[in-house]
């Protein structure tokens, strides 16, 4: 029992101990309320106090009007001339893509053979039909020479048979005349006639052989021509793939040991831009519309361009439509495969008006149009 009494006594409150003085509350809420009230009063004063309407408005996307002319005391300020605002090009849909060349070809040989000479380097300008490489052609040159010899022999045979035929026809004509006068036998006439027929047949055969020899010569000439690889169009060499001594082929039949191309040529006059536009916004792109292009390599250079065409097919995986964009001016700084960003300009109008048209603007309105009420309405 004594332990319980002692425990209860320890839990009792000693009334003789003086209570601690109450803590003073800091006036932060009062200060915050005063600050908010002051800001509200300042905002009300700024909104309610009238401002000078003659001050120029801040710059916006629309051309600002000219400030009102100064007025003398006792007169209301005249309002600024109200000219119809000119429609300005408005930035619209943006997209990104790459510079591409419509005419780009990897020049390859039409036959399989060993490269003996490559006549171009990267960056070289070539013309259409210019030889860019040569392939080993000694055997073809020999076959061409043999074909020309056979053609010459066939031509000589035709000439010889033609001469014999002319003589045989002359003899046959004389024999026939003598036979009519009974000065030649029928056997002589038959023999001369047969001779003419044989020579005519031989002449036809010789002419056919001559034609065959000429065709063979032409064929070997074309084969020899194939050993000279030529540029299909005028352009700039952007890549040289083969070297002298390598094997080339129109097909990769020899694995990695056989080249399929000699060089790559790009027609710089066919440079254009290709971008992918989300199919949800393709309706905002119009053929012939103005475009502003910016290359990642030259971010401060804006290139004027226009929409050539909208490719009539969509990419199912990316949900985009390809748009072709042409450059209004060709520039050597624009290179294939450069990254580019474009903006399709909307509501673009003609160039700025000339000074003569600017002088025909309407005259200022009468003084009563510049009343304080009108100025207040304009300010709002």
Automatic annotation (TrEMBL):
Q: Which residues form a coiled coil?
A: 189-216
Keyword entries, A-Z: Coiled coil, Membrane, Transmembrane, Transmembrane helix
Low complexity composition-biased segments: 60-90, 351-369
What SUPFAM superfamilies does its record include?
HlyD-like secretion proteins
Tell whether Transmembrane is among the UniProt keywords: yes
Q: What Gene3D superfamilies has UniProt attached to this entry?
A: 2.40.30.170, 2.40.50.100, Helix hairpin bin
- Cellular component terms per the entry's GO annotation: efflux pump complex
List membrane-spanning regions. Answer: 30-49
Q: CusB-like beta-barrel domain location, by residue?
A: 273-345
Q: Where is the CzcB-like barrel-sandwich hybrid domain?
A: 104-250
Annotated region Disordered: where?
1-27, 56-90, 351-380
Care to name a GO molecular-function term for this sequence? efflux transmembrane transporter activity
Q: Which domain of life is it from?
A: Bacteria
The family classification in the record reads:
Belongs to the membrane fusion protein (MFP) (TC 8.A.1) family.
Name of the featured protein: Multidrug resistance protein MdtA
Q: Name the source organism.
A: Rhodoplanes serenus
What is this protein's gene name? mdtA_2
């Amino acid at each position: 029992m004594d332990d319980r009494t002692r425990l209860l006594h320890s839990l009792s409150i000693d009334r003789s101990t003086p209570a601690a003085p109450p803590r003073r509350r800091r006036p932060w809420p009062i200060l915050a309320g005063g600050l908010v009230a002051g800001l509200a009063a300042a905002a009300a004063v700024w909104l309610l106090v009238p401002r000078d309407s003659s001050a120029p408005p801040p710059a916006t996307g629309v051309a600002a009007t000219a400030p009102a002319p100064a007025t003398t005391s006792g007169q209301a300020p005249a309002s600024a001339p109200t000219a119809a605002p000119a429609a300005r090009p408005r930035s619209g849909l943006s997209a990104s893509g790459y510079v591409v060349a419509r005419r780009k070809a990897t020049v390859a040989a039409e036959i399989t053979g060993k490269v003996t000479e490559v006549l171009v380097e990267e960056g070289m300008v070539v013309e259409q039909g210019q030889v860019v490489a040569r392939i080993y052609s000694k055997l073809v040159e020999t076959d061409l020479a043999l074909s020309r010899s056979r053609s010459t022999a066939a031509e000589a045979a035709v000439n010889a048979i033609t001469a014999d035929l002319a003589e045989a026809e002359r003899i046959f004509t004389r024999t026939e005349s003598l036979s009519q006068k009974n000065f030649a036998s029928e056997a002589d006439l038959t023999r001369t006639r047969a001779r003419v027929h044989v020579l005519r047949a031989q002449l036809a055969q010789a002419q056919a052989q001559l034609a065959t020899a000429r065709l063979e010569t032409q064929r070997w000439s074309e084969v020899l021509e194939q050993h000279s690889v030529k540029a299909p169009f005028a352009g700039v060499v952007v890549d040289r793939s083969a070297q002298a001594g390598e094997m080339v082929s129109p097909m990769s039949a020899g694995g990695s040991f056989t080249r399929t191309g000699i060089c790559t040529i790009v027609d710089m006059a066919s440079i254009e831009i290709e971008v992918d536009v989300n199919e949800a916004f393709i309706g905002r792109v119009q053929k012939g519309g103005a475009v502003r292009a910016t290359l990642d390599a030259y971010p401060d250079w804006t290139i004027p361009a226009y929409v050539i065409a909208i490719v009539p097919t969509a990419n199912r995986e990316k949900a985009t439509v390809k748009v072709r964009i042409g450059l209004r001016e060709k520039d050597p700084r624009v290179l294939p495969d450069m990254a580019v960003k474009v903006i399709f300009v909307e509501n673009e109008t003609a160039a700025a008006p000339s000074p003569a048209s600017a002088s025909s603007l309407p005259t200022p309105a009468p003084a009563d149009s510049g009343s304080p009420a009108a100025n207040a309405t304009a300010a709002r």
